[in-house]
Amino acid sequence: MKKHGSISGQGTRLEYAIRIMVCILVCVFLLFAIIGNASGPHNSGAGFVTVSAATAAMLWFLYGFCEKTQNAYKPWLILIFLAAFVSRLIMLSSWPIEPSSDFKSTYDAALALANANISEIEELLSTKYVYYYSIWPVHLPFILLETAIIKISGEGYYAIQVIFNIFSSLSCVIAAIIAKTLYGKRAGIITGIVMAFLPTRLMYSPVLSNQHIASFFFLAAIYVSIEKPIKHRLVNVALAAVCATVSQLMRPEMLIFIIAIMCYFIYKYILSTWSKERAGASAKKVIGYEAVFWAIYLFLMSGVSFLIATNGYVEKNITSGNYKYKVAVGLNAESNGRWNEADSQLAYDEVALDGLIKERTQNKLDLVVLGAKKIMHQYGTYNYDWCIEAKTGNFARKWHEPLTNGTMLVILLLCFFKVIMSIYNKSRREVLLLVTMLGYFLIYTVIEVQNRYNYFMIPIFVIFASGALEQLYGYAQMYIEKRK
To answer: Which CA distances in Å does 163 have to 146, 206, 211?
Structure first.
């Protein structure tokens, strides 16, 4: 059995200690996610058990099948994209849902901007769409993208949905490439197939969410960082920064990943190769990489923010956001850290929000309990409410939860197993994914939770699950050989 990226016998004690600590923390959070998934209100039903068992059997069968076809890896990538895109087009025509909540409001804002004259846009945003003008200007780049699509294609959801799902399909391919980089061709093929047909992502495909595009660029940043496809390392760092910036512009969730990638640079180029003789050169390399990354990220973010603010489209810069409100809601034990009417009434009162945060952080034990509950919901539930409505019919209402949560239970279990094994396999490239997972786990113990916010982590879970299958299949083969 191959051990991709193995560095057995190398590295430092500090590196190994950090790896163990990170893996243990990730395992703890994954365990809460698994418990939250398995103990959901309807997850003891026959449908949930059936779907989970069928998923496990199907993954095992597919892994054995891919053993014979893995040499056709590049054709598989094309097939994965086509399968993902066609299945999503089928969902767009057969899954009749209308935009609601934030998805409806961003589309309405984009439609109004598309139908307005350039001279009217500033007034329109500052009066009718003040929420995006002064409260959450971070969402305006996404609205402007939707505006551009409407300008080209005309009013309606379909063109936007198709473009979003091109990126969703490309995410399946790039997740496959990351898995192949870490664990081999079979793992890459399985990752792509699972991503192409995963019920949560298929049912979410008609939703007008900024997560479709942001997720692709997030995965692209990971791939460039661990594989370094371009010969010059600084070019790879720069490209990763560009991808992370685009993802941040579409959906403001990249700051955790940026912190993770800074930690990854330190881990890979200092901790894992520490010696007094090389300390100075390693430190210079890390400082150079991080300086290039931050310079490009800040330059692009500031440039886009300047262009939007200069035109009068926002009151502040696009990095502004009501983050105190997110924290105050996340610390509300009565609502289990989720949106609630009482806190929403104080969303624009900074003094009241400061008071709530201070009050809700006094009892540290309660915060730990609340954090565990939030992770159980945040990373244990994958049946997004925005994916079903009355028009989707009785079948959807009956099978939506078993199909989404049932498949993800198997993936979470496999991911849990792989993270444990990561303590021993010592692939340094895995560390970026591990630290990224840990960062997003930690932040959602503090801020507002909502199950669809786990969308970014699904590809990471699938990638680790494919790595688990690689190891389990190898163990099974060794056992069979010994029995002969």
So the answer is: 10, 11, 12
Q: For residue range 80-109, what is the model confidence (pLDDT) as tens digits?
A: 999 999 999 999 998 888 888 889 999 999
What is the pLDDT confidence band of residue 6, given thresholds at 50, 70 and 90? Answer: very low
CA distance 68 to 180: 16
Quote the CA–CA distance of 288 and 411 in Å, as a whole number.
Answer: 37
Structure tokens at 238: 């720069």
At which residue do the structure tokens 């350039």 appear?
Answer: 118
CB 33 within 8 A of CB 412: yes
Helix-strand-coil split of the chain, %, nearest 5 = 80, 0, 20
CA distance 83 to 196: 7
Is the full-model pTM beyond 0.90? yes
Report DSSP letters for 335-380, one per residue: TTTS--HHHHTTTT-HHHHHHHHHHHTS-HHHHHHHHHHHHHHHTT
CB 247 within 8 A of CB 261: no
Residues 158 and 86: their CA atoms lie apart, in Å, by 14
Residue 56: pLDDT band by 50, 70, 90 thresholds?
confident
